[in-house]
Amino acid sequence: MRWVLATCAVALLVAGCGDDGRELRAPSPDQTTTSASTTSTAAPSTTEVVAGTGGGTGDQGSGATAPPTTATTLRLTSPAFGNGQPIPPEYTCVGDDVSPPLAWTGVPGGTAELALVVRDPDADGFIHWVIAGLPPDGTGLARREPPSQAVQGLNDFGRQGWSGPCPPSGTHNYEFRLYALAAPSGLAAGADGAEAAGQLESATLLASAALSGTAAAP
Asked: Could you tell me which of 166, 175, 185, 183 has the C-alpha nearest to residue 209?
């Protein structure tokens, strides 16, 4: 028995007989590879959406700078009065009663023609002017003189062309509304004011702009 035990002990030392798992082993090849970090070092992608004529703003990634937009905004002004300011008497029934000068910028591409409707919202939308056929490459209207190709409907005074503010009492607001039409209006000269204004206001538009002025009763 002693001889057998001695023989087994020698065998354990030489051949590793009866390994109990505590012996250090050489690492296998797949244990020498370090796993790569799952954190990406690439710069984050960004999405840039250029605003169109509708003025919408798209998603932009962190730190992204949107490029300049080519979209324009139609604007209507007058050298005779500021927005919300009194309309000078010469453009009303107490003066020369001629149409005021107007200017505009930002007419969108593809505009077939421009048209203008002037109403008194304080008098149930009373119509003071309906004019269409304005060239899209123009920049405004001169005092008193609309362009020769313009077409004017009747106003609610029963006259063709402009009839200025003449409120019966108090102070009224007057809205000048410019329309950029997607197709020719086909407005007939001397057309009924309400029908002509409704035709323009319900047309397919590319843009519109408004200017407001005030006038007091004589």
From this structure: 175
